Amino acid sequence: MFQANRFIIAHFLSLDEVGIFSVGVQMGSFIDLIANAINIAIFPWIYKNLSLIDNNLNNNLYIEANTLKTKIVKMIYIYTFSLLIISILSYFVLFFLMKYILGPNFHKAIDFLLIFIIAFYFKALYYVFSYFIVYKEKNNFLAIITAITSILSIVLNFYFIKFFGLWGATYAFLITFFIYFLFTSILALKVYNLPLLPKNINPHQ
Question: How many whole angstroms separate alpha carbon 75 and alpha carbon 77?
């Protein structure tokens, strides 16, 4: 999805810079691996509870439905906070390890590690919100978001790399994933009536 940045880096900078960027992405994607492992566990749980909520609402069992909504909202906050802690710890661990496992030519990738970890943190948050859209069978909207962010990625990379070099590529990477998460979370809250705070749940939602 976001492979164009490497071609643009090669065009404006060099293949060496492409290598540095790729190493930084690979290190930062450690967060993505952890998020995928967690999502394998919570994906069935979310779907099961969404289905129970719909069944309760169809039977006018609003209190039961709201209780399940509260559980899901709390889970989202736990997921978000837990991944934040994991991301912070991963940064310090990877920062230390990269000095020893990378060759001297790739040490520059360490400078970009924090940005890549933050970017993959936003990607991890995207996952959990995308479940609600998929559950409501609004996959076409996810496709539109993917197309928009892909185009945005190309535009940002073209101008950022041209004027800011490799730093521009890393910030374009971060901004793209943030927008990807932001659009998806907004859409998820629209297609599925899920409140942001458990205490604000309305019995008739």
Answer: 5
Per-residue HEC secondary structure of 36-49 comes to HHHHHHHHHHHHHH
User: Helix %, strand %, coil % for the chain, to 5?
Assistant: 90, 0, 10
**Single pTM value for the model:** 0.87
Query: For residue 109, what are its two tokens?
Result: 């990738």
* 3 state SS of 13: coil
Tokens 């409501």: give the residue. 136
pLDDT digits (tens, 9 = 90+) for 129-171: 998 898 888 889 989 999 999 999 999 999 999 889 899 999 9
Containing 77, the helix (H) or strand (E) segment is helix 62-101
Cα separation, 184 vs 131, whole angstroms = 10
